[in-house]
Design goal:
Blueprint lengths: L12 H27 L3 H28 L5 H9 L2 H15 L2 H16 L16
Helix pairs in contact: 3-4
């Protein structure tokens, strides 16, 4: 991205870290913590699960960063897997990522539906699955 006088705009470390934290808080905490609290009795166990998940996520982010630096080209996972393993595996991984991996909007819609039923209890609660076939 460039400004009108054609100087490139740079994203600093603080801005990039803030974006990642905002995405994690928005999608992770607000949509899943209720289910975790429901099944875990100990706050310590919940915090430890979050700490372990954070370490695993950090390792994944650092791995993607190193691979992106070693193989600088657009294409994301498709490019990395195609270069490291085989182009057909890159193609399959790209389709899986596009169809299953980017299901965030669906998850947010489900969470929003749960929130609206809590705010408006007169509205019927949506079914969690297909209970009967349409006639």
């Amino acid at each position: 991205m460039t400004t009108p006088d054609r100087t490139p705009v740079k994203v600093g470390l603080l801005t990039a870290a803030s974006l990642v934290v905002a995405n994690m808080v928005g999608t992770g905490i607000f949509t899943s913590v209720g289910f975790q609290v429901e099944y875990l009795d100990s706050p310590f166990a919940l915090l430890m699960l979050w700490a372990v998940g954070g370490v695993i996520s950090l390792c994944g982010a650092l791995t993607y960063g190193e691979l992106g630096a070693a193989l600088p080209r657009s294409g994301g996972e498709y490019h990395l897997i195609s270069e490291l393993y085989h182009p057909s595996l890159g193609f399959i991984a790209g389709w899986i990522s596009a169809t299953l991996g980017f299901a965030g909007p669906t998850a947010l819609a489900a969470a929003f539906g749960d929130c609206t039923t809590a705010v408006f209890p007169s509205r019927p609660r949506p079914s969690r699955g297909l209970t009967s076939w349409p006639a």
